[in-house]
């Protein structure tokens, strides 16, 4: 009895990985074992950095809010504490956008919580 190997599925799997390796340099793009490792590592980095992206943006927003708050005579922590005390529920993304692009609106918010 001949040995049954599912060549169709194996080829499809290899093709899928090699398609993901498109654009890589050297043997990483067309040699199965090298490409498989490169793609696996790339996907690991992609997963990790989707989390890091959120971290980085939050840090950027906090920096922008702090800069806007200091122009108006408060620190970041004082502003956030005052917003919480006055039940103003604006998230950091919105506050950072106001501080950057609409300083008069940001100033009005700061004036309200002072």
Please describe the topology of this protein.
Elements: H1 7-20, H2 32-71, H3 76-85, H4 92-101, H5 103-113
Helix pairs in contact: 1-2, 2-4, 4-5
Question: How would you sum up this structure in a few lines?
Answer:
With 114 residues, this protein is an all-alpha fold. It contains five helices and no strands.
Describe this structure in words.
With 114 residues, the protein is mainly alpha-helical. The chain has a single domain (7-113), classed as c-terminal domain of poly(a) binding protein (Orthogonal Bundle). The protein is built from 5 helices and no strands. Helix 1 runs parallel beside helix 2 (32-71). The longest helix has 40 residues, at 32-71. The model has no long low-confidence stretch (mean pLDDT 96).
Distance between the termini: 85 Å
How helical, in percent, are the residues? over 70%
Which outline best applies? rod-shaped
Radius of gyration: 26 Å
Enumerate how many helices there are, as a single number. Answer: 5
What is the CATH architecture descriptor? Orthogonal Bundle
Under CATH, the homologous superfamily reads Ribosomal protein L20, C-terminal domain
Low-confidence stretches: none
Which secondary-structure class do the elements indicate? mainly alpha
Strand content is under 5%
CATH class: Mainly Alpha
**Number of structural domains:** 1
CATH topology: c-terminal domain of poly(a) binding protein
Task: Give the mean pLDDT.
Answer: 96
State the order of secondary-structure elements, H for helix, E for strand.
HHHHH
Main sheet: strands, sense, barrel: none
Total beta strands: 0
């Amino acid at each position: 009895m001949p040995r049954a190997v599912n060549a169709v599925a194996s080829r499809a799997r290899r093709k899928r990985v090699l398609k993901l390796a498109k654009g890589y340099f050297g043997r990483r793009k067309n040699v199965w074992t090298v490409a498989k490792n490169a793609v696996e590592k790339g996907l690991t980095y992609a997963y990790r950095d989707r989390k890091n992206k959120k971290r980085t943006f939050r840090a950027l927003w906090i920096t922008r809010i702090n800069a806007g708050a200091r122009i108006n005579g408060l620190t970041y922590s004082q502003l956030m504490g005052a917003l919480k005390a006055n039940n103003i529920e604006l998230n950091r993304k919105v506050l950072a956008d106001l501080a950057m692009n609409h300083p008069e609106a940001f100033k009005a918010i700061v004036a309200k919580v002072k």
